[in-house]
């Protein structure tokens, strides 16, 4: 598979799906759901220029420190927070992040508008929708939250590259309204450069297959599936998870 990918006989999308499968990830288990990278960092321009390297996320860094400002906090946490952490048996290893880049709650968060994930989300939240401000309601806002908060480290799911329906509230669920703006949470708000959910998926997939991502995707793979998952390489890469 690696050789096929290097020879460009399979797409970046197919390669990632195959890696996820080999790593034991599957659509049948929310706790081991396929994981895909955030690949862009420009969600505000009117047009998306895939020839400009500045529109892409730095794939060599874990999502929690893509914003340089967070790196200091994350390093300190590794050193200090661990000593405040309740671990009477002293068996929990040090970590940079107390949450994970892929978990069941995160999958339901993204897929809240489509069944069976809607019902699973409601079960998780004791029989009702979580408060509107915590819902997945806007792609630009979700990215901004990642940049501002080193504790939010969710990567993406494959649906961001082929499934426009998850961005629409086709079932008309009442997801509440935001506290400050009183805006009703309905369809997911898209980046300015996307004119519809289909257009978003089309451009996002194009970005995934772009020259820039093809040249850097292996850096992200090292973090998630490769040698930077544990040990000294993981510590150095600020990539140690609880």
From TrEMBL:
<dbReference type="InterPro" id="IPR050865">
    <property type="entry name" value="BEACH_Domain"/>
</dbReference>
<dbReference type="Pfam" id="PF02138">
    <property type="entry name" value="Beach"/>
</dbReference>
<keyword id="KW-0853">WD repeat</keyword>
<dbReference type="GO" id="GO:0019901">
    <property type="term" value="F:protein kinase binding"/>
</dbReference>
<protein>
    <submittedName>
        <fullName>NBEL1 protein</fullName>
    </submittedName>
</protein>
<dbReference type="InterPro" id="IPR000409">
    <property type="entry name" value="BEACH_dom"/>
</dbReference>
<dbReference type="GO" id="GO:0016020">
    <property type="term" value="C:membrane"/>
</dbReference>
<dbReference type="GO" id="GO:0008104">
    <property type="term" value="P:intracellular protein localization"/>
</dbReference>
<dbReference type="GO" id="GO:0005829">
    <property type="term" value="C:cytosol"/>
</dbReference>
<feature type="domain" description="BEACH">
    <location>
        <begin position="1"/>
        <end position="242"/>
    </location>
</feature>
<dbReference type="InterPro" id="IPR036372">
    <property type="entry name" value="BEACH_dom_sf"/>
</dbReference>
